[in-house]
């Protein structure tokens, strides 16, 4: 399949890859949007597009790996943008797009930062070429709530939880399943996903007791899926839902009203994986295919989660049920 956004000299267009981070607290999500009165709503996409358009003096449109909801953060988000090659030359970017990092830093608000800007390899699509997305969810059940210095990225769950039960409730969900019970309905969209890892860690410290971290990896996620997965486990952990509740939800084929959606502020997109450059276009074509369940199987499977997961290994203080931090994230059934 030919890449619809070529990056050749002849086309006059070049594709850039942006690696970025943001504090989602004060944004209405990733996607650019306008209300009925025409006033601009503050979104991550709009902030970056406006700054980039100003630098290049050319309107741009970003495509992102994961369209995060309002209040959700990112430390490892990936996007691409197609720009006229001439605009890079006239704006003294030339063959070094990393120069954009410094220029954008002067224009972007403090809660958005571009880590890296580079030429994208042929066939790269930030959304469709991705193999998997990695999310982390940070939550405390301590009565006082999160520390003031972590309140923006740590959710508060008002009831204490049984950690072992919560962890079991998560592990049973891994694999290729229909997660309709955990997803908000979207017409024409599939809810079949390959949940490659879903693990809870007790990361409590004397300063932050009753603190837990969920690490969630899948080939893709549907709307509100991660927060619903987390919310279901927390509900079982506090005893509001019975043991086996999450396993039973896999038999549902529509959104379950029994599944609570965990608060947005605890969720962070920490990384996105891509295949080798030679496989980018093939992966994008495969991902565009609509998934259809035939019994318990599916024709479009994601590649399994890697044994070692650098996105989660860097998480400070994460422990395995109070013990040493595991060297690798467990791989889910693929």
Distance between the termini: 25 Å
> Can you tell me the residue ranges where pLDDT is under 50 for at least 5 consecutive residues?
1-10, 296-304, 314-334
CATH fold-level name of the largest domain: Alpha-Beta Plaits
Using only C-alpha atoms, the radius of gyration works out to 20 Å
Structural class assignment = alpha+beta
Mean pLDDT rating: 86
List the total number of helices. 8
Shape: globular
Verbal overview:
With 334 residues, the protein is of the alpha+beta class. The protein is 20% helix and 23% strand. The chain has helices at residues 44-56, 85-90, 99-107, 163-171, 225-237, 245-249, 280-288, 310-313; strands at residues 13-22, 62-64, 73-84, 112-119, 132-140, 155-156, 175-178, 192-202, 211-218, 267-273, 293-294, 297-298. The strands form two sheets. Strands 1, 2, 3, 4, 5, 6, 7, 8, 9 and 10 form a ten-stranded mixed beta sheet that branches. Strands 11-12 form a two-stranded antiparallel ribbon. The longest helix has 13 residues, at 44-56. The protein starts with 12 loop residues before the first strand and ends in a 21-residue tail after the last helix. The model is unreliable at 1-10, 296-304 and 314-334 (pLDDT under 50).
Question: What's the short story on this structure?
Answer:
The chain is an alpha+beta fold and 334 residues long. The chain has 8 helices and 12 strands. Strand 2 and strand 3 form a beta hairpin.
Labels describing this entry:
334 residues; alpha+beta; Alpha-Beta Plaits; two-stranded antiparallel sheet; 20% helix; globular; disordered N terminus; disordered C terminus
